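User: Can you predict the 3D structure for this chain?
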Amino acid sequence: MHPILRTLKVVLGGWRKPPGGLFTESVVHFRVWPNDLDVNMHMNNGRYLTLMDLGRLDLIIRSGFLKVLMERKWAPVAGSAAIRFKRPLHPFERYTMRSRLIGWDDKWTYIEHRMEVGDRLAAIAIIKALFREKGRSIPSDELASAMGHDGPPPELPAYVKDWQGMEKDFEAASAS
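Assistant: Here is the predicted structure, written as structure tokens:
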């Protein structure tokens, strides 16, 4: 089930916050509701990724990138995700989701999501995404330029580079 009320909260809240830039951190506060739970009575693993979509939406709004996307008719597409669950989120527990752009390569952008309860990490994920228009993928440098960034991309952390290598191994394995 799509979290429509949370989506409205993110959209309305994102427009009320001061605009940022390409490296703005999104901070959204949520609570675990009964429809988020699995049979073990903690947040369902799939729900984390669904709610991280909202973190990216807030990030797009807060950074000012939504206007660029709408003007150019670019659409974001997730390509892959890696997530690490550190501790469960329980019914009615409040948590904070922090989302930020950590960098890009020629094709993909990499976004980090952190779900935290106080100062304790509950889950961390890296999402690999790109943007498309009319059957073509938008090069990452074109995206950065549209946001006013004319320098080189930030250095990707070692764990993202390791993940890129793993993804290449997956592609090679799926080709055989």
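The helical segments are 4-16, 45-63, 65-72, 140-146, 158-175. The mean pLDDT is 91.
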